[in-house]
Amino acid sequence: MDWNELHQQLFADSWNEELGLHRSNYAFRGRPLAGEQLTTSLARLGGNTEAIERPLLRHFRKYAARDAVPVDSTWNWLALAQHHGLPTRLLDWTYSPYVALHFATARPEGDGAVWMVDYVRAHERAPKKLREQLERESANVFTTEMIGAVAKDFDDLADLGEFVVFVEPPSFDERIVNQYALFSLSSQPDLALDRDLLHKIVIPAELKWEVRDKLDQANITERVLFPGLDGLSRWLARYYAPRR
Fold it and tell me: Can you tell me whether residue 90 is helix, strand or coil?
């Protein structure tokens, strides 16, 4: 694989005939090691996920700032918790293939991967009540408010059946905005995405440096994706580090 072939795969099927525009139905997730699976941080924590999920979120809400979310709802708190590293049933995705490439090339050693998921097809399999919310809002992706209009809590969501939907979180900070982020939300804490919705692109280790250099030129860097002094320091440390 080379840079051109990588682009062809990332932007395949992006033409939307109805809109007359290039608007991909895919979300992207980049991982530095191709062998990693699409498992949530809650699943990776191990143990009984149903038993530990509520206490995790309850204590996060207890100790977080009272005004940390724009509206007090389970889904806003869950999105904020995921954003700050708490193990949750959510999985991070981005609309941007370049942002996904950034994370796929975060480590130079080993093959990386970009996962692509067709979220439009995923929503065609969602329960009727949720599909009606999308139609009412003329949307392709849910907001936390739209989820909350149908399901107030985990039990309400589980009662709708087994499914995975995609949710845009509130704009908590510049990081979540700059990363063009969205989350997949499953109705069960350990429910996986349907395999036929997924496509995996393996990025050979020998291609990573070229991808990384071109992302730097396109301004897809730690300084932009992690605004603040921490992101700036990470970018400079990587940019000036000698290559082995």
Answer: coil
Instruction: Give the chain's largest Cα–Cα span.
Output: 54
* Chain centroid to CA 64: 23
The SS3 call for residue 138 is coil
Q: Which residues are 165's β-sheet partners? A: 185
In 3D space, the residue among 180, 179, 149, 144 whose CA is nearest the CA of residue 165 turns out to be: 144
Q: Which single residue is written with the structure tokens 């009272």?
A: 66
Q: Which residues pair with 92 in a beta bridge?
A: 183
Residues 31-72: pLDDT tens digits? 999 999 999 999 999 889 989 999 999 999 999 988 899 999
Residues 6+ apart with CB under 8 A from 131: 123, 124
Q: What phi-psi label fits residue 165: left (phi over 0), alpha (psi between -120 and 50 degrees) or beta? A: beta
Q: What is the spatial distance between Cα 147 and Cα 92, in angstroms, rounded to a whole number?
A: 17
How far from the centroid of its chain's Cα atoms is residue 35's Cα?
18
Question: Helix, strand, coil: what percent of the chain each, to 5?
Answer: 45, 15, 40
Paired residues of 16 in beta bridges: 21
Q: Would you kindly state where each structural domain of the chain is located, as residue ranges?
A: 3-13+23-209
Q: What is the pTM of this model?
A: 0.95
How would you list the strands of the sheet with 112-118, edge to edge?
A: 142-143, 164-168, 181-186, 91-94, 26-31, 112-118, 198-203
Alpha-carbon gap, residue 220 to 190, rounded angstroms: 32
Please give the backbone phi and psi of residue 198, each rounded to the nearest 5 degrees, phi first: -110, 150
Residues 61, 66, 67, 68, CA torsion sign: negative
Q: Is 59 helix (H, G, I), strand (E, B) or coil?
A: helix
